[in-house]
Design brief:
Blueprint (H helix, E strand, L loop, with lengths): L12 H4 L7 H16 L36 E6 L11 H7 L5 E5 L9 H8 L3 E4 L6 E2 H4 L11 E6 L2 H10 L7 E4 L21 H12 L3 H20 L8 H6 L11 H12 L7
Parallel strand pairs: 1-2, 1-5, 3-5, 3-6, 4-6
Helix pairs in contact: 7-8
Length: about 280
């Protein structure tokens, strides 16, 4: 071990006439080297022109699949979006907003929401007409809620949490504001058309799909669902034509022995995955 060379000799410069690692000449050399690197020109890639309506690159614009005019609806959507969703390329919320009039699809980004920082959202949560779309034992089926209502008599606000299922669960549980509105869920059997992103189970839907079903129920107009799903289907079709693969749900992969990721060691996660296989009506809570 005594013969292992060191980067800095323990002897002083006076003893051997050599410079140590802390000597000014070495520092100057490093500064010069980094200075040369800093002086190199930086190539800034040009961003592709983006369509102002669908927010997609102009070469893959989805406007031909959007309604010519925004859909007239009395319901007002409030999408509370996890910050991680902003950086995703294949988002569905911009397509949803492009189909609706201005002010009918409000996107609020964040993890934690309170009355002080989000007074408008707090006021919406306290409004008796507001519903929050989140499945659970306390949720009422949306169709049952509006069964005896006439169209337009109640102008509902609907809060939808946009994120992965684990992110949505975390946001719902840790924001007391979200426990104020009436909690509702969708009871329609609908397989997700968002096949380019993995869903936990076969009955889990994307944010756009949830909004499409909810609006068609509240507005009592099934055409709304068809119109809103059209750009989503076009987006998935385009991606599949250009190399994307169909993403089966985690439930489908487990049931068919196709799940190739390591199984979790956490007992709670194992039970959740077992439930995906055994319960046909389960959606992550």
């Amino acid at each position: 071990m005594d013969n292992v060379p060191s980067f800095c000799s323990p002897v002083t410069p006076e003893e051997n006439g050599a410079e140590t690692c802390d000597s000014p000449s070495v520092e100057d050399g490093l500064v010069d080297a980094f200075g040369d690197l800093a002086a190199l020109p930086v190539e800034v890639g040009e961003r592709r022109p983006t369509c102002l309506r669908c927010r997609r690159p102009q070469k893959v614009c989805l406007c031909p699949f959007l309604p010519p005019q925004p859909l007239e609806v009395s319901t007002c959507l409030y999408v509370v979006q996890h910050p991680a969703e902003e950086s995703r390329v294949l988002r569905t919320v911009p397509l949803l907003a492009a189909c609706l009039p201005q002010g009918k699809c409000n996107v609020i980004v964040g993890r934690r929401f309170n009355e002080e920082k989000h007074p408008e959202l707090a006021a919406v949560c306290r409004d008796s007409r507001t519903l929050i779309l989140y499945p659970g034992p306390k949720s009422q089926n949306l169709e049952e809620l509006v069964q005896y209502q006439e169209v337009g008599t109640v102008k509902h606000n609907v809060i939808i949490i946009d994120g992965t299922w684990s992110q949505a669960k975390n946001m719902f549980l840790k924001n007391s504001l979200f426990h104020l509105p009436k909690q509702v869920q969708l009871n329609r059997t609908l397989s997700s058309q968002y096949v380019i992103r993995t869903q936990p189970s076969n009955i889990c839907l994307s944010t756009l799909e949830c909004a499409a079903v909810a609006l068609s129920i509240l507005e009592q107009n099934d055409d709304i669902q068809e119109v809103l799903l059209r750009p989503l289907k076009a987006l998935c079709s385009f991606q599949l034509q250009h190399g994307a693969q169909i993403h089966h749900s985690k439930e489908h992969l487990l049931k068919n022995g196709m799940y190739d990721k390591p199984m979790p060691k956490n007992k709670r996660k194992i039970k959740r995955m077992e439930k995906l296989v055994s319960d046909h009506n389960i959606c992550p809570r």
